[in-house]
Amino acid sequence: MNPSPDAAPALWRQGWYQYARALASPNFGPRPVAASIDLIVIHSISLPPGQFGTGQVQRLFTNQLDWDAHPYFQGIRGLQVSAHFFITRSGQLWQFVSCDDRAWHAGESGYRGRNNCNDDAIGIELEGVEGGLFEAAQYETLASVCAALLRQYPVAHLAGHEHIASGRKQDPGAGFDWPRLQRSLGLPAKCFPASV
User: Mind listing the pLDDT tens digit for each residue in 88-136?
Assistant: First the structure.
């Protein structure tokens, strides 16, 4: 006997994605009442910079980072940030904040004539370095989670941190393959920054 479609587990539960490994961050807040979740922001991060698979990104987003574990951490001591998702080099997907809530990933920002992109954006961090290349497994996971987000939320725009915080941030940078993501999602060019 085949289970009915209704027996399948829900893809989303209160903004948490079924196929992500959940690790709740304390760094989030409510979205403004009138916010429309219509933007996905792609970032890149590695801690220490250029080192992968250390677990330090997860520690940063959950306020568990040992500031004395590496000299670089002194420059970010006390930083309280988060993203909704983090995709490792192997394509593993982590989620830190419900997509219904406001993660702290964009900082001072503006896009589509609106400021404070955290209010209406979903932030996705790719493990990597600014301007560097990303792995095929990361693109596969990114396309999958973006497709799920497009079905769940009124997403109309995708941009990099560099596009929403121009002059302040440069990630994910020149190594990110925007045409590949566009092809994977089958979206028109108008959904992406004009410069990609």
Answer: 999 999 999 999 999 999 999 999 999 999 999 999 999 999 999 999 9
pLDDT at 128: 98
Count of residues for the chain? 196
CB neighbour class for 117 (10 Å; exposed up to 12, middle 13-18, buried from 19): buried
The whole domain housing 86 covers 20-191
Q: Mean pLDDT throughout 148-166?
A: 97
Give a yes or no: residue 3 inside a domain. Answer: no
Residue 12 lies in a domain: no
Label residue 3 by pLDDT band (50, 70, 90): very low
* Alpha-carbon gap, residue 135 to 28, rounded angstroms: 28
Q: With 0-12 CB in 10 A as exposed, 13-18 as middle and 19+ as buried, what is 80?
A: exposed
Q: Identify the CATH number of the domain in which residue 169 sits.
A: 3.40.80.10
- State the Cα–Cα distance between residues 179 and 139, nearest whole angstrom: 11
Q: Is residue 7 part of a domain?
A: no
**What pTM value is reported for the model?**
0.95
Question: For the chain, what is the domain count?
Answer: 1
Kindly provide the b/e burial profile for residues 39-58, where b requires at least 16 CB atoms within 10 angstroms of the residue's own CB: bbbbbbbbbeeeeeeeebbb
125 assigned to active site = yes
Q: Which among 108, 125, 135, 140 is annotated as catalytic?
A: 125
Position 196 in a domain: no
